[in-house]
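The aim of this short unit is practical: by the end, you should be able to scan a pair of folded records and say something sensible about each. We start with the first protein, listed as its amino acid sequence and then its structure tokens.
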Amino acid sequence: MKIRSVKPNNRKKAFEVVTYSKSLPFPYAKANPRPTSDDPVVRAVVDKELAREGFVFTLKSGCEGTVHIEQVLEYNQDPAYLRDLLLYKLTIEAQNRVEASALSKREIIRRMGTSATQFYRLLDQTNYRKSVDQVLTLLHVLECEVDLVVRASSA
């Protein structure tokens, strides 16, 4: 996700991060270095070296910090970001289980009823076009149980 613009809001003590689809707050308290009333943000710009996926801010003291869009999405509990994070974690686990499995990759593919190409797409952690249920099917073939735990937020 690309950042379109960023504005420091010293009154709200938060950055206002605008992407091409939405506007998201990011509190100063989550930034490093942390801006304070004695050392406020004097400048914040989208970082082109990060492919517009982050921004750099400067404090009155001259200290600089960087914030990546993933930090903003995680803070705001963006559903698409959380889905991708879950998919990434499941894929890494599936990769580890395939390597540790006594089953050959050809046998796993046969049991899944899929093609080799689709199997390797499922194991690609950078592919976010796959579905969670496809990865769950793979884990089931590898004789894994997957439990989803829902608990109250600690924050």
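Turning to the second protein, read its sequence before its tokens, just as you did above.
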Amino acid sequence: MIRDLVQSDRQNWEKLYIDYAEFYKVPMNNEILDTVWSWLFDKKHVVNGLCYETEGKIVGIAHYRTMPRPLNDKYIGFLDDLFVNPNFRGKKIGQKLIMALKDIAKSNDWQVISWITHSSNDTAKKLYAKLAINTEFDLYELKRN
């Protein structure tokens, strides 16, 4: 079952989010966890959260948000994070979460949903190639220091 994250999901969500950070070799701490969790439930909905639940346990999460696309004077959806418990991979949970986002896009009048993944994440890229178009844009980041 796919549904919005709720406050009582914190413990299950936290485990998945820590595993997600570990997958990308990103340090995780309680401050980051608290901040992201608060974003999911603030009134501005900085970030929205979906989850895939089976047998009372969350095994997949997706964080997404609305983002302006100035060249088209429209808003789009942006998928920030998608993670499925490795023990539940191969069951199309990631695909189901993305398709749920497609429904959300329709209800929000987003023309597209965009996301990025690491160039080495071949498993995810195989899934994404089945569902979406690789725009072939490269991502750059300018560090402030």
